[in-house]
Amino acid sequence: MIRAVVTFTLLGAAWASVTHFTWSDCDSDPNRAIKISSVEVSPMPIVMPGPVTFSFNASLSKVMQGGTVELDLKRHVLILGNIHVPCLLGVGSCTYNYCTQLDSMLRSSDDATRKVGTQLKTILSDNHINADCPIPPQTASVSRATLQIPDPGSLASVIAAGDYTIKATIKDRNNNIQGCVSFKVELKRRSHGFLFG
Description:
Elements: H1 2-11, E1 22-25, E2 34-42, E3 46-48, E4 50-60, E5 67-77, E6 81-84, E7 95-97, H2 101-106, H3 111-126, E8 138-149, E9 162-172, E10 177-189
Parallel strand pairs: 3-10
Antiparallel strand pairs: 1-10, 2-4, 4-8, 5-6, 5-7, 5-9, 9-10
């Protein structure tokens, strides 16, 4: 679960460009198992490929035997408003099993996915976050970890440059909501050309 929050924090809608990272806890249930107290991401916009630095503080108050993270990804398009980004190639508004997602990334045939998975595994380990199911109650804190975001390659057709709202709803194996977080981010592609190297 905690690794899912980290993973999907980076993956990644406002009328104008998002000039700074914003987030909100979208679960108002005071008895929810997952409580997120802070999230920071920089730079904003996030430039792909390139480094992203993030920090967060969260707590888990009960054992999580298994479940899912459901992403709802919306891109803001000037005239059309918020456009739902479907789940394509495992990216977009997808549902992920938080017990197996990191292992799936580490075994992926896609080199970029494996690299991100390896970085996430290191960040979890370095910060003593137990993300193996069943996930025990714990406080998770990451301070200024850096993740190298690869060139999106073929995923660029799914995740284009622009402003996004990403909502991650974390559910237990009985489909009960245990936490929710929403982010507003801007994604940009690094310019490559004769003027920009």
